[in-house]
Amino acid sequence: MKIFDLHCDTVGECYKNSQHLRKNNMHLSLEGAAEYDEYCQVFAIWITDDLRGERAVDYFNNVADLYHKSVGENNDLISYYNTDSKTPVKGILACEGGSACGGTLRGLDNMYKKGVRLVTLTWNSNNEIGGGAFAEGGLTPFGAEFVKRCEDIGVIIDVSHLNRQSFWDVAKITTKPFVASHSNANIVDNFYGQKRNLDDDQIKVIRDRGGLIGLNFCADFLQQENYPGLLSLGEQIRYLLSLGCEDVIAFGSDFDGCDMIDELKGVHKMKGVYENLLKQGFDESVLNKIFYNNAKRFFDKNLK
Ligand SMILES: [Zn+2]
Question: Contact at 8 Å (CB) between 283 and 133?
């Protein structure tokens, strides 16, 4: 079984809690992921909204160094995506919060040099680039430069966590496909989920650009009356399929980044998730696209 996941916070949690990527008691470990035939994981470095300027850059650098050290020490299990190594786990580095650039394009070049190939522009508040889900205002003039430079150097834009205005600013100035690495369709029953998830028009523009939507396992982002447990994930998939997103849907689990229902809590649950979705009536070919093929095709095409 092959899995491609667009978002987890595991490396940052390892850094903060002195845990190891190889073996730990968190949602994701290399040993857990290596149980599958192939596990491609986008590892995000989350920059909290209280870190800006040099402090954000320093934090980013420290966690990026830990990621590369962990890959080097565990090269029997993990290698960088786009290399010929035959390890079961493949890693792509991402940054959740463009403030890791410290508000300069030179800082973006540093992120690229450190291996970042996907950037979530904001977290929930404002930063130098634009307004997040719980903030006012769209992309700043610097944010527009940042986004254009990302497209030039080959960093994929991630619109998860943006507010609506920033999202549409990004849609307007970009020419390449972009992703929502860990956001769901806005069919949920709570305020937090509604702020963070995508409305139909947003979903359609991501689809038409050839982007990806990574379904988030966060309990609040799945919660819908009458759809308990994994039925809520099935309903998200059904809804996105009704909007013509068969080639767009992927997973962005948010492992080690949020609270989940038991059925989704950790990499070892993914086989059960697949079997449950089969029982819910989804075709194997559709599930294989969601679990792996859509993201694989996207990154092989769009990653330099
Ligand atoms: Zn997030």
Answer: no
**Which tokens hold the place of 212?**
């990806």
Could you tell me the distance, in angstroms and rounded to a whole number, from the CA of residue 84 to the centre of ligand 1? 30
For residue 161, the CA-to-ligand 1 centroid distance in Å is 7
Q: What is the mean pLDDT of residues 2-24?
A: 97
Q: What angle do CA 45, 46, 47 make, to 5 degrees?
A: 115
Whether pTM exceeds 0.85: yes
Element (H, E) at 157: strand 156-158
Q: What is the pLDDT of residues 241-275, one digit of tens each?
A: 999 999 999 999 999 999 999 999 999 999 999 99
**Ligand 1 centre and the CA of 56: distance in Å?**
16
